[in-house]
Each structure stands twice: as C-alpha cells, then as structure tokens.
Amino acid sequence: MIKKVNQATFDREITNIEGICLVDFYATWCGPCMRLSPILEEIVNSRSDYSILKVDVDENPEISRRHQIDTIPTICIYKNGKLVEKQVGFKNKEQIIKLIEKYSD
C-alpha cells in the first residue's frame, strides 16, 4: 500500500525506511499523475521490498519548495534516507522498476 505523507511526517518517514524508497510528488488535478498512480499501486502490491510514498504538492508546498519540485509528476528515489535520484514526468512500470533496481543492493 502506498502511504501518503505530509509536512509533519515526511522527514520521519524517509529517514525510517532502510533501503530504497520512491516518493511520488503529485497533484490531484494532474493528468499524468493520475495515470502514474495505478502503476505505482501495482508495483508496491507486487513487491514487498519496495516502499512508495506520495506527497500532494498542493497540500504540502513547503516540502515541494525544499525539494525543488516545480514540475509534476516528479519521482524521487531515496536510499537509506538520502536522495539519490530525481526524475520528472510520467514513467511506465518498466522504467520505474529499472530506476528502483538501479539503487537496490
């Protein structure tokens, strides 16, 4: 299950996840974001070793500013709490899995 995080929980969630965590920065009005959402659900439901979090940029502008999110969807990959990659735009399932596996041990 994908967990939605907000200003109060973002830092704690990221630092508490060992290994790889994908964060999807999205908005409810964004067409590509809506197409990406079921793909992320499918990935997280099929792989228990993947952590996926979602941040609504409209509800959490401070997180978006801090991470320099100016285009959505944006996918950020964290490894052991550290940002290792940021990708802007829609990605298909294969691209996302390849991106996550790039940082898996």
Provide the descriptors you would attach to this structure in a database record:
105 residues, alpha/beta, 4 helices, globular
Overview of the molecule:
- The structure is a single chain.
- The protein is an alpha/beta fold.
- The chain has helices at residues 10-16, 31-46, 61-66, 93-103, and strands at residues 3-4, 20-26, 51-56, 74-79, 82-88.
- The protein has a single domain, classed as Glutaredoxin (3-Layer(aba) Sandwich), CATH 3.40.30.
- 38% of the residues lie in helices and 27% in strands.
- The longest helix has 16 residues, at 31-46.
- The protein is globular.
- The mean pLDDT is 94.
How confident overall, as mean pLDDT?
94
Share of helix, binned: 25-40%
Any guess at the CATH architecture?
3-Layer(aba) Sandwich
CATH class: Alpha Beta
Largest sheet: 5 strands, mixed
Question: How would you name the CATH homologous superfamily?
Answer: Glutaredoxin
Going across the major beta sheet, what is the strand order? Answer: 1-3-2-4-5
For the termini, the CA-CA separation is 22 Å
CATH topological fold name: Glutaredoxin
Class by alpha and beta content: alpha/beta
Count of discrete structural domains: 1
Rg over CA atoms, rounded to whole Å, is 12 Å
Report the uncertain regions.
none
Put simply, the count of helices is 4
Beta content comes to 25-35%
Characterize the overall form: globular
* Total beta-strand segments: 5
N-to-C order of helices and strands? EHEHEHEEH
